[in-house]
Amino acid sequence: MITVTSFVWVPEFARGQVRDVRVRWALEEAGLAYDNRLIGEEQASPAYRLEQPFAQVPVMHDGKLGLFESGAIVMHIGEKSEALLPRDPEGRARAMCWAFAALNSVEPFLMQLAEIDFFHADEEWAKLRRPGAEEMVRKRIGEVSAWLGESDYLEGRFTAGDLLMASVLRILDHTDIVKTDPRLGPYLARCLARPAFGRAYAAHMASFGEG
Amino acid sequence: MITVTSFVWVPEFARGQVRDVRVRWALEEAGLAYDNRLIGEEQASPAYRLEQPFAQVPVMHDGKLGLFESGAIVMHIGEKSEALLPRDPEGRARAMCWAFAALNSVEPFLMQLAEIDFFHADEEWAKLRRPGAEEMVRKRIGEVSAWLGESDYLEGRFTAGDLLMASVLRILDHTDIVKTDPRLGPYLARCLARPAFGRAYAAHMASFGEG
Q1: Residue B104: which of A55, A103, A147 has the nearest Cβ?
Q2: Which among B64, B69, B143 has the least Cβ separation from residue A105?
Q3: For residue B148, what are the contacts with CB-CB under 8 A and spacing of at least 6?
């Protein structure tokens, strides 16, 4: 009843980082089975654009309902499972705050740095810009770290907000910026040690062999 | 019962663009009254960081519940009002997809261009990078435009997804990129012509005189 799209092939450096990982992780936390639907050349087709306006993955179908944007899909799965979204209105609303914080207040800065490192490292503008981009990342990372303090999770217990924040922090796996933060390093390791993430990651990586 | 924070002062170029506009707009669409709480020097205080981990506005209090991130707040308001979120599960889920699309798939690219224009225009890296940043913006804008087609709104009727997409498209008001798009130009004008936006914008601008 649930299907999730993923790419049949991506370059080596992108494996493990494509956004279907986030949705697979949420489904594993929720204990919901799903079928994987591999997307190859049809990524560029008008038909797939009707499912995903930006020609990306993942798209999730839940019965007749078609959803795009990993953030929206994770929240949709959360509404089916207390493992991701607390049932009390306050806990639910706070998880939603952190979901948007991860994707709108943290990820854009980390993506700027990752794009410099992966796509533009040899370009003059990127060399000039990198220190400023890293400074912005460290500021935001520091603010999340300060909020976290000595807590295990952003709001006391694991929620969809942590799932998305950890997914965003993973973007800088090629640097030591998150790893060496005394709070966020252990936080990220704690989130990624969850069996649900392990299953999601393994399924994601295995899917590239299926093309 | 509802309070929303906004800054007592911001530079001229930022007036009209601070994110409390999005929340004020959502409250006006929903027909919910609110009190404005002006934030000045306390922006940098540890107490305000407990309300807003990034020391920004807006924070909304709804009774005892404290919320941050304009996207999360708009969705919270949407749950109180069909004016923003359709009551049927499919319409609701699709609005959520576009809310995340606006904030995670469109806004980061527009913000990169706006940051170059407003904060780094004279820097060498920014001059070298601007054409590439504009190209990315045009790609994403074009994808939203293609999706919209001849429709008035992204999913047939106005939702929180349109509110956030229009708020994001406004970021490039200093350029003609959105205005000259044959679909998105009229779409943005249509969204901003809504009386609720007019009231929200006026209240936002008036608040700077209250410091």
Answers
A1: A103
A2: B69
A3: B154, B183, B184, B187
